[in-house]
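From the methods appendix. Each design record in this collection lists the tokenized structure first, followed by the designed amino acid sequence. Records were kept in a plain field format so they could be parsed without special tools. The example shown here is representative of the layout used throughout.

RECORD:
FOLD TOKENS (117 positions):
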């Protein structure tokens, strides 16, 4: 897949996932949030909790899952710490990390609390 096509496929996947969270009653409060330590694809709120969502798009859900590396997870953790520092409860804010897998057909599979494993 060419770089531009891959980029646009990723943006489209993020749009789909943001819509999925919005329809499920969670407020999407940021997209492509960037801190000094990294970027988070989508940040959503579920009541007082914050959900950090990494979107991975590929031909299959399994292939998409393989694209998440330990290094990326570390960057997402760092960016999440920066984001939470701006919250009223700071790092005491209830938070979780989801991974949203999007396949070539546009089907979405959400792995809730994926970084806990």
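DESIGN:
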């Amino acid at each position: 897949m060419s770089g531009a096509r891959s980029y646009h496929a990723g943006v489209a996947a993020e749009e789909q996932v943001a819509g999925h969270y919005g329809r499920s009653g969670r407020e999407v409060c940021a997209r492509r949030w960037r801190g000094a330590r990294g970027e988070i694809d989508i940040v959503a709120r579920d009541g007082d909790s914050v959900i950090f969502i990494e979107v991975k798009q590929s031909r299959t859900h399994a292939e998409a899952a393989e694209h998440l590396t330990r290094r990326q997870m570390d960057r997402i953790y760092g960016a999440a710490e920066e984001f939470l520092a701006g919250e009223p409860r700071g790092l005491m804010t209830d938070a979780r990390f989801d991974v949203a897998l999007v396949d070539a057909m546009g089907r979405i599979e959400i792995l809730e609390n994926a970084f806990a494993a």
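APPENDIX NOTE: The domain at 3-116 is CATH 3.40.1350.10 (Trna Endonuclease; Chain: A, domain 1).
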